[in-house]
Amino acid sequence: MNSLALDLKRDSALTLSQAAVGCEFQIKQVEGSACRQLREIGFCEQMRVKKITHGRNMLCTVCGTRLALSKDLADQIQVVPA
Amino acid sequence: MNSSSPEARIALVGHPNAGKTTLFNALTGQRQKVGNYSGVTVEKTSGEFFTPHGNRFELVDLPGCYSLSPNSPDEMVTRDVLLGVQEGEAIPDLVLCVLDASNLERHLNLLLQVIDLGYPVIAALNKIDQAEAQGLRLDPTALTETLGVPFVPLSALTEKGFVALKQSLRFPFPAPGDRHWHGSHAVEESLSSLEKVATEAGLEPPAAHALQLLSDPSYQDSDHLPEALREAAKKGPQLAGEISQVRGEFVHRAVEAGLRRPDEKALQLTDKIDAYALHRFWGWGFFSAIMLTVFWSIFRFAEIPMGLIEEAQGALGNWVGSFFAEGDFRDLLVDGVIGGVGAVVVFLPQILLLFFFISLLESSGYMARAAFLMDSVMSRVGLSGKSFLPLLSGYACAIPGIMATRSIPSAKERLATILILPWTSCTARLPVYLLLVPLLVSGTGAQTLTLFAIYALGTITALLAAKFLKPRLGPAEAPQFMLELPPYQKPDWGFILRQVWDRAFSFLKKAGTLILGISILLWFLETYPKSDSADPAAQREASFMGMAGKVIEPVVKPLGWDSRTGTAMLTSFAAREVFVSSLSISYAVDEEADGAEDKLRDRLASAKKPDGSPLFTPLAILSLLIFYIYALQCLPTTAVVKRETNSWKWALGQLGGMTLFAYLAALAVFQIGSLF
User: Fold this and answer.
1) How far is the alpha carbon of A13 from chain B, nearest alpha carbon, in Å?
2) Which of B66, B100, B113, B480 to probe by mutation at the A interface, max A CB count within 10 Å?
3) Which of A10, B3, B212, B476 has a CA between 20 and 30 Å from the CA of residue B231?
4) Could you tell me the pTM of the whole model?
């Protein structure tokens, strides 16, 4: 991948809390104080996640499981549109 | 071989909700509580079973965990048992890892961590029928090849695949495989240097300890490890993040090889229900409707069995009474034993109904939704939705509620939850409420609402107390909330009936032992010493109970109670239900004045003060209710709080604080109410 494409891809990354409801995303990076906890529950790099609702606690599905996630946890998950 | 000891020890490991407990019960035939939300399996449970090869194995059900890097005390137990550092626990010979086939990706991570520790492992692919119903196609052979351990598809609920599972437990167990992944140079270097220190310290197996220290920073603080090893791990590079990423990538590849997903992602039933059940407006309507239905049913449907129990109790009293001449012994049997125990047993149907509904909500998957909704309320008082689950169990009984707090990751939130939990009204208070509420209002609708208000008052005060306590318990923590919402499912009626039956049994046991004993004692204290007068009122005053009543009277008079109510309240510190038995025995002496009517409630309603005015005025009943909402009158709860907080300070402080609060609140209600 050339550097321009890489930049474009990085620019399109957003956190799960910013992501739009009803869309599917791929997890690009998990980073932050709770990243280990998040990876263990299923939020690993490359996994697909679907966001269901916004809110203080947002709902999403990852690997077929529904999870409620507080905003500060969702902020630690960076996603790109799948 | 010694025939009395099993040949090997197998540990059951898996996520909460993976069906570990169901599998355990099905294999060992032992009964145990199965829950739908995280953290129910907190006690150590073990059992035995035979394989088709005739081997006898011990099975240990370890607490559910998402990973071997623990976030709560119960998860720590699982990690420590597997590393062989849990006190008094032998190292397992094999790990049976339970995976939810419908959520394979998430569950493989834990499996990989167990394999990494160097155990022989068998992977039970549970809920295979559910996965197939979702259109998932699993390839156990491909998974076995990638991960190097046998995968056995099964369904713990229907016991499908059990023969294959038992056959795979062939003794002696296969040798464990090697680690499947390789980290960066830094990771591998740190691992081998930590392994060297662990070997020098004599820790077995050294490789597992080295890997755990590097991948789980909390293990570096474990008291079970030698100082030198902890120091070495802390000084070295911290590579936990890198390891979990490498593991995640490996799992992703394994899933690619062993799982085919359906292409179309149709909106499933769970999504359709959740669109309403979790809606910010409809969700609350749904929640309130469910709670109101529960309370309404408790009054409405229990009437029939309650009437039958009352009739049976009256008939039994007459029948037993007919065998004996009038005298103290007949009074002891009819008023003391049958009257005292019967007054409590009559509430059995209502208590069972409440348990039935709580189990039903748990089993159907709604409980986690309620926790999700409540998180927005709980967070305002510094708690989270995680505390709501223990608090909700508290409505059934404070003890399982307090034990369920072990699944709360934050120590501070856990302590605050334990301290406020007895203010969620448990079923032991229900007999008291059910006796008093109909004296206050009539009609099923009004009674349901009053009962609802009682529960709401306890809950709201508990939440306010949490808001007051939480900042005083320690430094602030960042709130982090993560909750799994299991799919809705058909209730497991077997599980519900077992729960209700267990509850009925333990309630009847309590009625037959503790409450029976106290009833006899109370009857004795009411009857002796004898006065010369034939007047029941004079006799009551002369008895031990009358004397105690005189002592307590100045304390309870400002609350609007008489001395008999005061002594009944004192006796209920042994168990709340005793209040009802105690009143029933105290007021049985008025029976002759009452004529034919012998129901306790009517007797209370017609009880008079010495000046002829009614004793149980609405205000006095209100003050009694307030006292019972707030008082902590349950010695087993205090014992469990001591055990869970490991401190008499919190346990006794809670007991004293809640009793004082109850007294002051009842005092305020009666005194302020009397002004109007």
Assistant:
1) 19
2) B480
3) B476
4) 0.66
